[in-house]
Amino acid sequence: MKNKDIRWKQRFQNFQRAFLLLKEALEKDISEFNQLEKEGLIQRFEYTFELAWKTLKDKLENDGIILSKISPKTVVKTAYEAKYLNSAELWLKMIGDRNLMSHTYDFSKFEEIILTIKNQYLLLLNELYSEFLKEIDEE
I need a labelling partner for 51 at 20 to 30 A (CA). Which of 32, 41, 75, 97 fits? Predict the structure, then answer.
């Protein structure tokens, strides 16, 4: 099958698995999560975010868009300029929160970011997921 040879589609499969696991976790009542479950949720978010921006990078490159540098911020800004994303600002905030979670053990910040993941970032990731899925299904 030709689709298997296209890098962004291969990476999308991993993004899809990670996204669906994150979505499933966020469908539960997070107020009842213990500390370990909250840490697991943050880890799922980090995996999903990493796969999201890397899939987006691969898609941009596949479509012939040249990236000046390979970093989450550059990919997001380029994707926004090329109309692949509807909001650069929220994506950049997500990058900041993802980086913060990798380097902090401030549990009040943890709680705040979990709510932001549930109430904002899941929607952004879902938009990207749906666009990729639609494109794959159209082929």
Answer: 32
- 51: tokens are 């796969």
CA 22/CA 41 separation, integer angstroms: 7
Q: In terms of residue numbers, what domain contains 99?
A: 2-138
Summarised one tens digit per residue, pLDDT across range 10-41 is: 999 999 999 999 999 999 999 999 989 998 99
Number of domains in the chain: 1
Backbone angles phi, psi at 105, to 5 degrees: -130, 30
State pTM to two decimals: 0.90
CATH number at 118 reads: 1.20.120.330
Q: Return the closest-CA partner of residue 72 out of 39, 95, 103, 89.
A: 95
Torsion of CA 109, 80, 66, 61, to 10 degrees: 80
Q: Which residue type is seen at 2?
A: K
Identify the CA nearest to 132 among candidates 5, 21, 2, 14: 14
DSSP secondary structure string for all residues of 63-90: TTPPPSS-SHHHHHHHHHHTTS-S-HHH
